Amino acid sequence: MRYSRGDVVEFKVGLNEKHTGQVQFVEEDYNENILYVDSFGGWAYKIPEKRIISRITVNSERKRFTGNLSKSEKL
């Protein structure tokens, strides 16, 4: 999957720890891509693409933090 600057992703750190953050930079290598991610927890990470769990869309992230969407966002 291709990631670009500004994408919000969920990624693994360590064995069983997951974080969510925004991609700041993608370093393309001949073997794999390395993503530099600013975590919403306040840390910055250098993550190989294989450690990315999923890309999170803006609407699902907004729904998760606010609970409900306004009428204009439901359309």
Structural key phrases:
SH3 type barrels; 5-stranded antiparallel beta sheet
- Total number of domains: 1
For the largest beta-sheet, the strand count, sense and barrel status come to: 5 strands, antiparallel
And the CATH topology? SH3 type barrels
The outline comes out as globular
How many strands appear in the DSSP assignment?
Answer: 5
SSE arrangement, N to C = EEEEEHH
CATH top-level class: Mainly Beta
Task: Describe this protein's structure.
With 75 residues, the chain is α+β, with helices and mostly antiparallel strands. The chain has one domain: Roll (SH3 type barrels). The protein is built from 2 helices and 5 strands. The chain has a 5-stranded antiparallel β-sheet. The model has no long low-confidence stretch (mean pLDDT 82).
What's this model, at a glance?
By secondary structure, the chain is of the alpha+beta class. The chain is built from two helices and five strands.
Map the helices and strands.
Elements: E1 8-13, E2 17-28, E3 33-39, E4 44-48, E5 52-56, H1 58-66, H2 71-74
Antiparallel strand pairs: 1-2, 1-5, 2-3, 3-4
